Automatic annotation (TrEMBL):
Transmembrane segments: none
Name of the protein in question: Apiosidase-like catalytic domain-containing protein
Pfam family, one: Apiosidase
Organism: Pseudofrankia asymbiotica
InterPro entries on file: Apiosidase-like_cat_dom (IPR025277)
Apiosidase-like catalytic domain: residues covered: 15-315
């Protein structure tokens, strides 16, 4: 099938390859380690880093894992911590110095209840004031509709590790639980609908103020199953329509289906999946999955790509937030995948993609992707990704034509004269 072309990101939103470091500004990363990782990703071919200038996900504002060496982003009474903001600026300057754009998240969705709408507006005003002259993009919130009706679960200083431990202790006896369930269900549905409206209206108000305060592109990160255009009424102020496919193998088809849906629903809007599979999360999604997600997303029409690795996003030590997996920061940083993704990204850019008006063709017979092709709008060439060369229907080489440079092996990170006998292959024409 052919998919409508996606319009590339507007001016000021590059075709970035981003890594995800939600806890990058906390004391879980020393200054030296932060600088080392920035240099590593820049050398591997990345051009951006997603990070939170505020309270990261999965922890409460009083949890020391959310704090920098200068304390929390903001105090219990809502006052911003100027020393934290100075620290944030220095670290983003470090990213910029090695050529990395900072994709700045100011809050997480449920934190709107902690700050209040006026507080969130004031916090974003401080961020724009301190960071707007740097190489940054802004993301209104992570997972705007997360935990509606359960916003206080992490207050004041808990983590999702703590919630998992306390959940079993809070269970009601089975008989009493059965009696209360119908009454509770009706109450929860009504309360949730009202809370959802309030959340949406609140973030819309913050978005309007933020977008009016800066010329920088603004994005919004959402929960799996919805788009930023579904989550916000004023989504036209955003620089792209965004989704999160999340961390489940069942989301595999969404990697090529979401861009098509967005192109049909919102012609002319760029598309970005801000959170595909994290490598190593839940002991899954290894290098083959990461290369698959990159090539399928970009050839389906995405304007940029966001990588993530468990251990890296949480600056993990194998124990912190280990319910997502025990892979540590050191293990994540040593994975070869990031370098392979950087090599893939360089090849894609050199071959003239992404192309805003290009056309994507997908062969997904039987629900399994066999190939995906992105053709440039001017007919001057195309790029095709085959996840498994062993079952690929590769076109015959034209007579008298040298095949050198026609193939790229993503799992080797190199151009090859002939496709290997197994593994993924990219055909450049």
């Amino acid at each position: 099938m052919s998919l409508p072309g996606m319009v590339a990101a507007p001016e000021g939103v590059p075709c970035f390859l981003a890594d995800t470091w939600w806890f990058a500004l906390t004391s879980r990363l020393s200054d030296d380690r932060f600088a080392e990782l920035a240099g590593l990703r820049a050398a591997q071919g990345f051009s951006a880093v997603q990070l939170v200038v505020g309270i990261p996900p999965e922890v409460g504002p009083g949890n020391a894992n959310a704090w920098s060496s200068h304390g929390p982003p903001w105090f219990a009474d809502g006052r911003p911590n100027t020393h934290y903001l100075d620290h944030a600026r220095r670290r983003i300057e470090r990213l910029n110095a090695v050529g990395l754009t900072a994709v700045v998240y100011g809050c997480w969705g449920h934190q709107l209840a902690w700050l209040g709408v006026p507080g969130a507006i004031a916090w974003w005003a401080r961020l724009v004031d301190r960071l707007d002259d740097l190489d940054v993009l802004y993301c209104l919130s992570g997972e705007t509709n997360l935990w509606i009706g359960a916003e206080d679960a992490l207050l004041p200083d808990r983590s999702t590790d703590d919630l998992r431990l306390s959940a079993a202790r809070a269970r009601l006896p089975g008989r009493l639980k059965g009696v209360l369930r119908p009454l509770r269900a009706r109450y929860v549905r009504h309360r949730h609908a009202a809370a959802a409206r309030a959340r949406r209206e609140g973030w819309d108000e913050v978005l309007g103020t933020l977008a009016a305060s800066t010329d920088r592109p603004v994005l919004a990160h959402v929960i799996p199953g919805e788009t930023s255009a579904d989550a916000l009424d004023r989504a036209g102020l955003l620089a792209a329509v965004t989704v999160q496919t999340g961390h489940d193998q069942a989301s595999r088809p969404l990697l090529w289906e979401w861009p098509a849906r967005i192109a049909q629903r919102f012609p002319g809007r760029p598309f970005i999946n801000l959170e595909p599979w994290y490598e190593g999360i839940r002991d899954d999604f290894g290098p083959t999955d990461q290369l698959f997600a990159y090539w399928v997303s970009m050839l389906a029409g995405a304007a940029a790509y966001c990588y993530g690795a468990h251990g890296m996003w949480n600056a993990g030590d194998g124990a912190f937030l280990a319910h997502w997996g025990k892979q540590s920061l050191d293990t994540a940083a040593a994975l070869p995948t990031a370098g392979l993704l950087g090599a893939s990204h360089r090849v894609l850019l050199r071959h003239g993609l992404p192309d805003a008006r290009g056309v994507t063709t997908v062969d997904a017979s039987g629900g399994t992707l066999r190939s995906i092709t992105r053709a440039r709008a001017d007919g001057s060439g195309a790029v095709t990704f085959y996840p498994d060369v062993a079952v690929a229907d590769l076109p015959a080489r034209p007579a008298g034509r040298d095949a050198g440079g026609r193939y790229f092996a993503p799992d080797q990170g190199e151009l090859v004269a002939q496709p290997p006998g197994e593994g993924p292959i990219v055909l450049l024409t």
